[in-house]
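Recall that a protein's primary structure is simply its ordered list of amino acids. Everything else, from secondary elements to tertiary packing, is in principle encoded there. The following example makes that idea concrete.
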Amino acid sequence: MGDIATLGDLRGKRVLVRSDLNVPLDGTTITDDGRIRASVPTIAQLSEAGARVIVCAHLGRPKGAPEEKYSLRPVVDRLAELLGRPVAFATDTVGESAQAAVAALEDGDVVLLENLRFNAGETAKTDKDRAAFADALAGLADAFVSDGFGVVHRKQASVYDVATRLPSAMGGLVATEVDVLKRLTVDPERPYAVVLGGAKVADKLAVIDNLMKTADRLLIGGGMVFTFLAAQGHEIGRSLFDPDSVEACKGYLAAAQENGVEIVLPVDVVVGKDFSADTQVDTVDADAIPADAIGLDIGPRSAELYAQKLADTRTVFWNGPMGAFEMAPFAAGTLRVAQALVDVTADGALTVVGGGDSAAAVRQLGFEDDQFGHISTGGGASLEYLEGKELPGIAILTKEH
């Protein structure tokens, strides 16, 4: 698996780099630039090596055709600001604008192509349907660098197929992510705790399955808590609930007991009458949720229990907030877990915040990235790796073509 050095002297060469610039926007305002900042070192490295850098990425989920609200245009200025050099923008991905912009590049210059997913070939299901788009993308460049960790679990044209058509290497961001994930899966330092939150149990079933073999403790928060509580026979009111996963949760609770893995569930819950910041709020025991209430965060006793369960850990992986952290009355659980991770990081533990909502949460709640061991740029990719799945965008870089 080669890094950028294996591509040799890049001066004057056109290098296509697949970055992850899928940032949250409020209209055209970037609300969290973490993924742009994480992409900058590899782009800067290529530019400083004299390469003619062609950055490609996606934003949101357009349906294979241009949609103004998913344009990457708002990203250009922030990328240029962080790079400290101008970044050109092509208004298409492989069309006239892209070709002209690439032709105009001088050594060290950078261009960002428009959203890859404006072309249906990017996300097409079969190799054959992705081929023409992959050929056109590869035709813009002399070499390829894969640096978008948030998409390496997808078999897509810019992630997988281009790597079969050009000399390819792994960018620094992807290399770091893979290294961190190996530390979570191959002989992790113990005690090893995994904190899982977010809305649905179904999204996390496979990863819970696999973590039962490696983790010492699983701390469950977020909306998925209520399916576990239902599996224990408790009233959960109008809380988020996944009836199809109840049996699986019962199985995990039994297997955990059998295998000596500790599953930690909340002892109290913050509830509201409605899913809103100004609803009537109450804290109740986890086994006494009123029939007309919605559970929206782990309670204060649970937050302290979770902090206690993290205090002696040497390795922690966290994916998914503890509650509806975007609303102040339901942010305390996520805030307390984040602080517990900061504390054990300071004690030398490896702490990994697994992308997506967890990364947004810690930044929104006022924490700095460097207070944690590693903030992943790819929640879905991290989870699939921890499930034991092969990630196509990583696998293709290790194969002989």
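The longest helix spans residues 34-48. Residues 52 and 104 are 10 Å apart (CA to CA).
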